Amino acid sequence: MSHLLITGASQLLTLRGRVPRRGKTLSDLSILHDGALLIRDGVIAAVGTRSEIESLPESRSAEKIDAGGRVVLPGFVDAHTHLIHAASRAEEYELKIAGASYEEIARKGGGILNSVKKLRAATADALKKRAQAALREFAAHGTTTLEAKSGYGLDVASELKLLRLHKELSTEQPLEIVSTFLGAHVVPAEYRRKRAGAEQYIELLTDKLIPEVAAEKLAEFCDVFCDRGAFSRKDSKKILEAGKKNGLAPRVHAEQLTRTGATQLAVQLGAASCDHLEQVSKADIRALAKSNTVATLLPGCDFHLGMKRYAPARALIDAGAIVALATDYNPGTSPTMSMPMILSLACTQLRMSPAEAIAAATINAAYSLRREKQIGSLETSKQADLAIFDVEDYREIPYYFGVNKCWMTLKKGRPVFQKAHT
Length: 422
Ligand code: NIG
Ligand code: FE
Known about the structure:
Blueprint: E1 3-13, E2 31-40, E3 43-49, H1 50-54, H2 57-60, E4 63-74, E5 76-78, H3 90-97, H4 102-107, H5 112-121, H6 124-140, E6 143-149, H7 156-172, E7 176-184, H8 189-192, H9 197-215, E8 221-226, H10 233-245, E9 249-254, H11 262-268, E10 273-276, H12 282-289, E11 294-297, H13 299-305, H14 313-319, E12 322-325, H15 339-348, H16 354-360, H17 363-368, E13 386-389, H18 396-399, E14 406-411, E15 414-418
Parallel strand pairs: 1-4, 5-6, 6-7, 7-8, 8-9, 9-10, 10-11, 11-12
Antiparallel strand pairs: 1-2, 2-3, 4-13, 13-14, 14-15
Helix pairs in contact: 6-7, 9-10, 12-14
């Protein structure tokens, strides 16, 4: 049996309390001052004040980490990423700065289709290497669990290759990867050229790919990009229902560029999460507030695309919706692995308080991945997934931006990142 004792936290954010967090409870971090943590075989054995924890018999022989007056919190749970892709789209970034819109670029065969072309041409080995490097960056910014979507393959072989890579990566490196099938990202080019091609592609998804993904246990969730230029609400319903029938819980890309009614659909289907939400209506906000579908906000997209309209986080929180935050790491709209940067954007652009942003990025995100019993807070018998930030006050995590203040990240009690001494 191995024991690890962590002491010396100026603030230990336990996030103990009601799950999921809604409304006023979202800012409840349950902070222990001069708190300590005892970990047994990767699981939290005790959390309390330093004197309480140090007096436990197991603490005496435990290996020790002195947090040195820094802030200790649960590792970030990044509940929306497009982890595996072949290359950046820096060329489109430049076009966008010069005035082209995301949708214009997509209509000309750029955007997601550009990434599909690159992914199909890449070897599994090259994709894996790129993802491994990204995962090291995630860990370096305090993330310990992330959701990963397929969706740049869009044919049977390439989608399955992507999902199998999720599985391999999940076992071969320390971060936990929660796999989502996003065959319904857009209709691929070869089907656009056919008559009734979109219908045929949807049929391929519902009748072949989804059952195969489920049979091979390659994903837990099924996602759809429901927007102009991607899938309609009606098509999305068909695809998500096929997913559900095969045991894949729905997640939805909703109301990002235009309002399609995807949020109402997500609520009707009992989706685990409904993401983006820049264009939601008041009725959508009310529907989310009454549901257990998490509103996952992705301010990195609006920032990167230079969009002025962010999701109405305040209205969502005040109405009682379950709000989470994620990077949406992807080559087209949000090329970042940094949850601290997302927290900074949540504070300045979404007007969330630092405490709300942290709860949204940990416990509520864990709830959206249906893992709230294992991760997202620092409580006895949960996984010892935590991040230590080189700040004295948790508000300094979003306050500093564009610099990495993460000092150490631990997954199941093992350091997976440690800042080099400077
Ligand atoms: O979450 N909106 C759809 N999917 C991604 C963008 C994908 C891309 O542009 O490559 C998103 O923003
Ligand atoms: Fe996305």
